[in-house]
Structures are given as C-alpha cells and as structure tokens.
C-alpha cells in the first residue's frame, strides 16, 4: 500500500480557514495513495495554546471535519486528518484525531491521552482521552497516537495487543527535541514490530520552531522515507505483510513475561 504524509507548514500569517482550504487541496492532489496522514493540530498549531479556545470545533459538523471528509471523498483515500481542538457538547476541549474512509465517512476518533505542557498549555487547557483506538483498514489495522504519546511505550503495547500493524502518529514536535523524535519513532517500531507513520509540522508558530522530519519506519526499525524540515509531501510503499513475517521470524512479542 502507498502511504503519503503531508508535513504542513503552520505559518501564523495564514488563518486556520485559509490553511484548511490549502490543506484540502493538498489532500485532493494525493488521489492514488491508500492512506494520507496529516499532522497534529495543523489548523491552529500545536503550541498556539492561546488560540485553542477560539478555534475549538465539534467533531460532527466542525469546519475541519467537513473539509477533510470532502477531501478524502474527492481523492478516494483513507485520510488520517491529523488532530483538531475539539469542543465537546459539555464545553471540554480535547486534542482529537479524525480518520476518514474514502467515502468521506468518519471511521475513527482518537482523543490524545497524554497531554503535553506539564503545568501549562495543552496540559491545563485540554482534557485527556481515556481509551486507545485501533481501526481496521482494508490494508491493515491502524493504531492511533498523537505526538507526546510517543514517549509512553505502554500505549503502543496496548495498540499492538489490539492488533495494530500500522502505528499512525500525528505530531507537532519541536526542532529542539528532533533527536528524541528520531530515536523514539524507531524504538516504537522495533518494540512493536510494526510500521510507524509519524507526520509532524514544519515552520514556526507561537515562537516554537517545528522539527518536520516526518518519517515512515518499517517493523525492523529501518527508515523507509524521511522528510526535511520544510513543508513536504512524503510518500512510500509499505508491505503490511512484513509485520506478520517479522513477528513470526523474530518472535519477541511472544516472549513477553510481564503483562499488565
Ligand atoms: N505536541 C506535543 O505533544 C509535543 C510533545 C513534545 O514536544 C515532546 O514530547 O518533546
């Protein structure tokens, strides 16, 4: 299957509405891909916490969900539309990822479990999700995660136990911790014996330079393709059968002793 990661430049000179239009056109241009992946909070910027409340939107009928559903349908692709600031009916905010099927139907919703910021930003403004999410796609089972989740291997172990073969991570990872990103995406792939598709943002917003370097890692931990720092469309071919073959030939997951 062909995976395409769209590493978006979150430029504060562009409004969220302008960016939605531009990103929808980018997604439409990816017809022929099986799965297209966008980054974390690209409409507003993962570090632009001062804008979160004003840009919050519902999942059902929200402007990003509507635009991405239409773009997925027009392109005929599975679309992991990255995440949005979700406002639920009770008024709580979540960092919520949306997965659309090629007919534009919402196929999965994942609320980021681990909120970043310690005592500020997302960590205080948003509520955390309380469940891991997998979704069965025609070409494999996807496990969803978002940015800071990458530092919590126990979440990825639960995704593997849920059948995940493709670990799809949207992110807004800062340039100053690029080295952590590059190690952790490979670690999650190696320990899970799964593909990791990790899509980050480019540019600088809220004073935080973004790392870019979106990447696809195979179940052996080999980097299949990796972006640079700027806005980029990154595509590569994945052999999802390699997940099962890797797990059968080198059965580390079978040898686990300690289970929660
Ligand atoms: N948006 C995020 O979750 C940022 C995570 C991060 O900067 C880190 O883990 O380091």
UniProtKB/TrEMBL annotation:
Coiled-coil annotated residue ranges, if any: none
Recorded hits in CDD domains, A to Z, give:
nitrilase_5 (cd07583)
Record's superkingdom? Bacteria
Q: Which GO terms describe its molecular function?
A: hydrolase activity
Q: Which residues form the CN hydrolase domain?
A: 1-240
**Segments traversing the membrane:** none
Q: Which PROSITE patterns match?
A: CN_HYDROLASE, UPF0012
> What keywords are annotated for this sequence in UniProt?
Hydrolase
Family note: Belongs to the carbon-nitrogen hydrolase superfamily. NIT1/NIT2 family.
Name listed for the protein in its UniProt record: Carbon-nitrogen family hydrolase
Organism of provenance: Actinacidiphila epipremni
